Amino acid sequence: MDNIINKSKIETLIVFSIDICKRLIDDYVDFYIKYNWGNPNILNEAIKYCEETEFAKIDRVKVKELIHKVEKITPDTEDFENIEVSYALNSACAVLELLEFIMGHDKIHVSNISSFIIDTIDFKIQEIESGLTNDEIEDHPKIVEERKRQIAFLIINDA
């Protein structure tokens, strides 16, 4: 995956990252509803900012402000007992990585975003199907589907 990310255009990677962040946001919302903690509106605000400015000049002060706001509503796994905190953490961290990426275009941030959704799917698989080996999880249809989706997205949109 890293090879494809490294060969992709910045504009494609921004759209790719936004897509993943949007797909992870529901997990944060579920966590917010269950624990009455955090603020999904801040994540949506950050994603919307990245959508609206993806090809325009970035306001670094605004991005740093958004990073600070997202950090404040990023849950700590030590503070909550259920697996939902991991999903919400991945969602918030993906948005933080997106903000970092639009500021500096370091493609490691996109790789991290890609990993956050894979990890979330992995956690959900393990919740339902405990006892799977790492190889079984890597070969699980949901993981394979997500990897194919990501590869196809980058190839199609970078053409």
Automatic annotation (TrEMBL):
Pfam families on file: DUF416
Classification via InterPro entries: DUF416 (IPR007338), YP001051499.1-like_dom_sf (IPR023381)
Gene3D superfamilies: YP_001051499.1 domain like (1.20.1590.10)
Protein name: DUF416 family protein
UniProt source species: Flavobacterium hungaricum
